[in-house]
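ingest -> validate -> predict -> emit
validate: passed (alphabet ok, no gaps, 345 aa)
predict: started
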Amino acid sequence: MPSYGARSVLGVFIFSDRGELLDFEPFDAGEAAQKITATELTPEERRLKKRFPDAVFEPVEEFPSPGGEFLRGNMEALLERIGISRQEYNLRLRRVAFEVTRDRLKRALEKRDLLIKQAVLALEELEEALNVLSSRLKEWYLIHFPEAEQEDAAGIAELIHRYGRREALPGYEELAERSTGAELTDDDIAMLRCFAGELCRLLELREELERYLDELMSSLAPNVRHLVGARIGAKLIALAGSVEKLASMPGSRIQVLGAEKALFRHLRGRGKPPKHGVIFQYPAIKAAPKWQRGKIARALAAKLAIAARVDAFGGGLREELKQRFEARVGEIKRTPRRKRRRRRR
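emit:
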């Protein structure tokens, strides 16, 4: 007759077809959470399988199994049989349940982190394409209306899509009358308007992506977003791999994320160490004098390390992180620059 195995937070039980306990292999307390959710046979189950070749094990139970029913229906007697008190069992059950929940939340969060990475990469690639296509459209249209040279490459797309010919552009009537551009056929104008229309739709898609990325960052990394904005925060998470991986990094590592090539060059003795990576795009660093950028970058990276840890472990929004950073930036800006002493030859 077959025997049946059943997992518990305490270990693996083997029952006969009549529900009698045949054997028991305990789990190590520190590994119970991983073993109880394992999709394959655990070492304990393999040992029992050698002793009971006909034993039936179901690592992932979708439906109640005979072993599971025997286990749940006789818990008090089983605890007494293996010498474990009900209080000790409840403590183990609570601890394992907490660890399993935390592990599942962690995996779910990491999957959402992948959405941030893909969204920010898509946004960057879309912007690169928009820059190329906008420039191409402008160069194409300048054949017809070279006087529009000063118009923004992306902004001119909507004008072309809506009005087409130079004579129809609002505000350009006088220039259009004395334009030196070539006359275009209706087919030429139709193609330009079609091209401009597609470009306008891509511009709308960029806005949608920006909103989507902002919402993702608000839900997954609100402190990082509040500190540096959705775009820079998403780039940092994409480079680190996840919010949790970013949280495990020291500020000094976060400071140079995105500057790996310069860092490796320095390590090979071919250049100076980088002072900042992606965070250089933050306005307070980018607009600062060169001699202040390193200090501001260090201050921002230190606050980002704290923000990422709060986000990774669910600490809620901490607005004071940005306030403290801004106060530190004020101190740096008020500090006069020290004059370097010239080395005597």
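The chain is about 60% helix and 5% strand.
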